[in-house]
Amino acid sequence: MASHFVNIEESAINALKTKAENDNTKKSTTSWLKVWQEWASYRNYDTQIENYPPEELDKTLEKFYGELRTKKGKDYEPESLKVMQAALDRRLATRKPIPFFNNS
């Protein structure tokens, strides 16, 4: 009888993780991280979200969410804020360093 379980190498696990993250998710994460970095730079904060200790990150994110507006100066829709929070959570969960986006 065949087993329900097989041995899998770490490289195969990493390939599954990479495949699971679709292009739209990657674009969303990149876009929202850029917004975070622009805000942090504007406020003279560390743009690398992974560098914040948890308590400081909580306070900084509260300020970020409170100050964030669309390019037209309007509040974001709640669904957009959920997507943004999910994007930042994904980045923090992976703890990968992110490049600073500079528009100059």
Explain how this protein is built.
The chain is mainly alpha-helical. The chain has four helices and no strands. The protein has a domain at 23-94. It has helices at 10-20, 23-42, 54-67, 78-94. Helix 2 crosses helix 4. It starts with 9 loop residues before the first helix and ends in a 10-residue tail after the last helix.
Brief characterization of the structure:
With 104 residues, the protein is mostly helical.
How large is the share of residues in beta strands? Answer: under 5%
DSSP helix fraction: 55-70%
C-alpha termini separation: 63 Å
How many whole angstroms does the radius of gyration measure? 17 Å
How would a crystallographer describe the biggest sheet?
A: none
Structural class: mainly alpha
Quantity of strands, as a count: 0
Give the oligomeric state.
single chain
Can you tell me the residue ranges where pLDDT is under 50 for at least 5 consecutive residues?
A: none
The helix tally amounts to 4
Write the element-wise H/E pattern from the N-terminal end onward. Answer: HHHH
Task: Report mean pLDDT, rounded to a whole number.
Answer: 85
Shape: elongated
